[in-house]
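[stage:ingest] chain + small molecule (adenosine-5'-triphosphate)
[stage:ingest] validated
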Amino acid sequence: MIVTLTANPSLDRTVELPGALVRGAVQRAAGTTEESGGKGVNVCRALTASGVASLAVLPGADEDPVTAGLRQAGIPYLNMPITAPLRSNITLTEPDGTTTKVNAPGPSLSPVEQEALIALVVGACTPKEGSGPVSWLVLAGSLPPGVPPNFYALVAQAVRERLGTEAPLIAMDSSGPPLTGALMHGAAPDLLKPNAEELAEAAGFSNEAALEADPLLAARAAGVLRERGVGAALVTLGAKGALLVTADGSWLATRPPVQARSTVGAGDSALAGYLLAEVAGVPPAECLRQAVAHGAAAAALPGTAVPTLAQTDPGEVTVTALSIEPQGPIAGRAAAAPQKEES
Ligand SMILES: Nc1ncnc2c1ncn2[C@@H]1O[C@H](COP(=O)(O)OP(=O)(O)OP(=O)(O)O)[C@@H](O)[C@H]1O
Ligand SMILES: [Mg+2]
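[stage:predict] done
[stage:export] tokens:
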């Protein structure tokens, strides 16, 4: 069982444009979709699609369109009721794969609600009679207003303290203050899933483009995160594939180009692909292969659609071992980097 926490879930509206987006113009959509989302929810959606047991923990009223959408989609969830409606995010996709996102801030969570959410996560991760152990807890996405940037660190600490040796491994996918906040407070995750931009901000690199262009540099930046206590880093590099940096080795995975229709949620699918391989007992390099196969399949699907395992093609992915030399100061490393909103 894999549990995910989405602190700031959303109703994701995707508008598929028949041509390029024109600012200031009135344009007709070729199609629209609407579904419950947020990073943890998307990971659960992808796991559910492949028959892997998961549970999405989130704030939200029973009658909120987001929780209603989860029921309709058959995604198992556990909600912490709040009175305010959840947010709705808009994505515009263009035929060449360009996507534009506008994310709302979401309802704020009071300190009491934050405590209740942490308690719900601890409860969801507690082993129960008759069901298998929870192997992973995924902390994903942005934090709503009112929630401190170290919230994911607080969740990780609570789960590890309360469950001890029975605590699940913790994976994290976020950006900006929630990402740096989680790393700063000594509760680093077992697996971090940054893209190049998030890797740059977390490892203190100024040049995100250089990280995306140079897997060895990206692997060394991921090594900086490992020095800060992160167990392993699954760095996704968009169309360039992904790399995995662990205590036991580092690998790069690439595949031939796909016709991208919507890259929204490709990172969430990549993380789901990694985790479903990991819980099946597959070695790390092969988990990376499945991550890239899942990400590429997601990019080829429209909107926020997620692939099933059968829709992925891991045989198309090439995995190469990387050798990273321990070295001195790394070129391009800076004190701080700009931060961006994450869904
Ligand atoms: N244009 C593309 N062509 C092929 N594969 C892609 C493309 N974009 C993404 N992918 C696949 O999806 C994975 C994740 O993509 P990316 O690095 O863009 O994640 P991300 O920025 O975290 O995405 P998000 O947070 O929006 O879900 C990549 O490792 C790759 O396998
Ligand atoms: Mg991402």
